[in-house]
Amino acid sequence: MKQISLLRRLAILLTGLLMSLPCLAGESIFSELTSTQKGEVEAGSQVVITENIEGKPWPRVKVYRLINASPEQVAAVFFDYENAKSFVPNVIKSEISNRLSACTMDVDYGLDVPIFPDEFYTVRNSLKSIDDNSYCVDWKLLRSVLTKDSVGNFRVEPWEGGAVICYQNLVTP
Description:
Layout lengths: L1 H18 L15 H8 L4 E5 L8 E8 L3 H8 L5 H4 L3 E9 L4 E8 L7 E13 L2 E11 L4 E11 L2 E11 L1
Antiparallel strand pairs: 1-2, 2-8, 3-4, 4-5, 5-6, 6-7, 7-8
């Protein structure tokens, strides 16, 4: 009986570690970019990279950008789910519906979609500290009116007095 309990705890621990891998890859955000892309970001441009994924109708999208704020400030704004509707364009609802822990929450969103019906969905967001100055929020779509699946993350780390971000999302409509 003790052996089963120990194996179960080990399995839970390993599952938790594997789920956190997207944010804990260990590479810096800039290491993912070519020298040309890195130069564009350093010059203040937003760099968007798309990646076709086999079996998915839409590509994975990654957006890179410098932000004139500390990584802590950027993470705090991203993690301010209750107020997102006041500063994120087209968001008409943003409410925490379930607090699983201090850093993991289910958030109900409503999105004003031009031409189409508004989209309402719930995402599980988990904030992680990668190190003392770098943060990541992973998300996974739990339910939606129109969207089948969405999984992604938002990473932020220090860069020359500010922060660099990478927003990554893969949506299955």
